[in-house]
Structures are given as C-alpha cells and as structure tokens.
From TrEMBL:
This is CWH43-like N-terminal domain-containing protein. The chain crosses the membrane at residues 60-80, 92-114, 126-145, 157-181, 193-212. It comes from the Bacteria. It comes from Marinobacterium aestuariivivens. The keyword Transmembrane applies.
C-alpha cells in the first residue's frame, strides 16, 4: 500500500483547516475579509474560535495532528530504508513529531475556551507545534541531503526542501528583529508571518510526500508470517 497519500493528507489538512475556517469566519462577520497571508488582517486563532468555523477548525486540525505524528514515525522508518544509519536522529524525529502533534492537539482543543488559565497551555501548544515541526523538518532535510543517491535522483525536490527551510528561517529572524526594532510594525504584520510560516511548513510535508511517492515508500504485509 503506498504511503504517500498519508503524507499528502498530513500536509493538506492543516491548510484546509485554516483556510476554510477563515472563509466561514469572514462570512459570519467574525473576522474581516482580506488576504491574511499578505494583509495580516486576522490571526489563525481568530478563524477557529467561534462556530461555525470552530467546528471545521477542530474537526480538521485534530485529525491532522494525529496524521502528523504518524507522518514523522514513518519518516524515521523511511530514512532507515534509504540507508541512513543515524538512528539517534531518527529517534529524535519521532520525539519531535510527538511533541508537535501533542502541541497542535492541545492548541486546537483549547481554542475558543474563555479564561486566563487557558492562555498558557494554548501558547505552549503553538510553540511546541511550530518549534518541533521546524526542527524535525530541518533534520530530515539535512539527512536527505546526506544521501548521495537522493541528491542524484531527486536533487530538484531536495533543493526546494532546503529553500523552504531557509525561507522559514528568514521569516523567523525578520519577525524577531521587527519585535525588537519596530514594535508597531511587528504588531501590524505578525499575523501574516504566522500564516506564511504555516504555509511553508505544510509545503515541506507535501514535497516530502512526493519523495515518498518517487521512492515507492509502501506499507506491505507478509501473510506468510501470520501462518
């Protein structure tokens, strides 16, 4: 059974959650109409706080978090199949994947809950998801570039994986510098940074899904072992 559809779903579901929720929230008058990736008119969280968008946001984002955990576990197995012997890094990928998935579940579950006691866990969940996901993507991009066979056969896709990592690093650095040097501008554009950071993270998953497809990463069952 080909596994790349699982990776495709892991990359597409978060994008579907935030964009469909935004349209529903804007249609309900809960957030303004705009291009949030450019205009920075609303945060991702604002799109999923209130019904009906909240139902779609949680209904898609929580399954997406579960898929992402499985995605990182399978990535560790895939790297072993490709001949990568850095087993400690494989285990770290799994740990980071679990951390990212749990963070996303906590954030999504508590989104819309009223009270200061929920702000800390929500913020922790967001930081865990973004931080762990970026670190995991950085590790797998590095490990894939180490494989000469992958560089020769799939150099184009590996190049774009690296571009995505550099773009997100640049976004993060600019975001931090704006917070220090220009607080007012930082407040005006911080939402757009989050939208674009999320987009780039999901694109990385989708490109990895294409690598799974090209390398024929499959789940197989040996019935002889069950007899």
């Amino acid at each position: 059974m080909p596994l790349f559809p699982l990776a495709l779903a892991a990359g597409l579901l978060p994008l579907a959650a935030i964009n469909i929720s935004y349209v529903l929230a804007a249609n309900a008058g809960q957030v303004p109409w705009c291009l949030p990736y450019i205009d920075s008119c609303t945060s991702i969280s604002a799109t999923g706080r209130l019904p009906p968008a909240a139902f779609v946001f949680k209904g898609l984002m929580i399954p997406a978090a579960v898929l992402l955990v499985h995605y990182w576990i399978l990535n560790a197995c895939w790297l072993r199949r490709l001949g990568c012997q850095r087993h400690r890094w494989h285990r770290l990928l799994v740990i980071l994947g679990l951390l990212a998935g749990c963070g996303l579940i906590i954030y999504s579950t508590l989104l819309g809950s009223i009270g200061p006691e929920y702000r800390g866990p929500r913020r922790t969940g967001v930081i865990a998801f973004f931080g762990a996901t970026y670190l995991a993507q950085l590790i797998i991009t590095w490990l894939l570039h180490e494989r000469q066979t992958m560089r020769v056969e799939h150099g184009g896709l590996l190049f774009w994986l690296l571009v995505l990592m550099l773009l997100n690093l640049l976004l993060g650095l600019v975001h931090v510098l704006l917070g220090i040097a220009a607080p007012r501008l930082y407040e005006a554009v911080t939402n757009a940074f989050a939208w674009n950071f999320t987009l780039l993270l999901c694109l990385h998953v989708l490109l990895t899904a294409e690598l799974w497809r090209r390398t024929r990463w499959r789940l197989s069952f040996n019935l002889d072992q069950l007899i």
